[in-house]
Amino acid sequence: MHFHLLALSLLPLTVHSTNVVLSNDDGWAEINIRTFYNALTAAGDSVVLSAPAENESGTGSSDAPATTLTEECEFDSCPVGSPPEGNNASDPRLNYVNSYPVTSMRYGIQTLSSIYFGGAPDIAVSGFNVGANLGSTVLISGTVGAATEASIEGIPGLAFSGTTGSQTAYTAAPETYQAVYADLSTNVTQTLVASGKPYLPAGVWLNVNYPAVSSSACSSPADFDFVLSRINAATNGTPSDVETCGSTRLPTETSVVDTSGCYASISVGIATTKADANSTEQAVVLGKLKSILSCLPS
Q1: Per-residue pLDDT tens digits for 224-239
Q2: How far apart are CA 8 and CA 75, in angstroms?
Q3: What distance in Å separates the CA atoms of residue 238 and residue 228, rounded to the nearest whole number?
Q4: What ranges in the chain are assigned the alpha helix state H?
Q5: What is the C-alpha to C-alpha distance for residues 86 and 218, in angstroms, rounded to an integer?
Q6: pLDDT at 12 (0 to 100)
Q7: Would you call 272 helix, strand, or coil by DSSP?
Q8: Is 132 helix (H, G, I), strand (E, B) or coil?
Q9: pLDDT in tens, 274-293
Q10: Whole-angstrom Cα distance, residue 232 to residue 210?
Q11: Based on the number of CB atoms within 10 Å of its own CB, is 153 exposed (0-12), middle (13-18) or buried (19 or more)?
Q12: Do residues 19 and 122 touch, judged by C-beta distance below 8 A?
């Protein structure tokens, strides 16, 4: 089942006024987060970006008070001596926090949301990350850390990660993978919002991963299928997953992304542990995202 951003015009109009906090671990001036910001904004969402001043990849759920810049922000995007938190003068919705992804997400939720939304955001998204975050990698990913922090604070959190790409300044010439991943991530976000509140069960987050994009493969959002998955491989003692695609055992997100074709994984996790959610929580997500979910080839 192929579904992409053009089809969002068929969704209820209520999805167009969603208040979104956006973060990552690659930094506020990395091209992926700026492309995602632009895609969400173009889709009608009200977005505030709150992300680290520097590349904080691999910092997991680390947290510390923001401090004055003792060196320039990544890609020379703010000078030495800049305050602990700051924004882009031409677009104050683009904010940096000189600390970790968790700290940045919290600042977006607790401080910036009051300024721009007049209250808490509707949803929080993180990414899309430079590189996939599959399996045990979720434990050290700052992009995941930001999404799970949102869920712990009572805001539905989603983490997005893409296989293709490298750390790139937002001022660089755009590449195909950025537009594709941004389109797909906006699709998932708005489909979830269109399903109605509560968007996710309490304390649950979603981990979304994309396979590689190239000029010859997976070069359009329409090429992709989403598959409900597990973060970690099941063992003999693991309880059954939600029943879908003729099975009570979901594929791992790694196996989904590695399957030939253009398959993107959506896993349901528990924010406090970053482990897999149970079948009841998976079933809620299955119901909400069923319009975009498909099955792996048999």
Answers
A1: 999 999 999 999 999 9
A2: 34
A3: 17
A4: 31-42, 101-107, 113-116, 142-152, 176-194, 253-258, 279-289
A5: 37
A6: 41
A7: coil
A8: coil
A9: 999 999 999 999 999 999 99
A10: 17
A11: middle
A12: yes
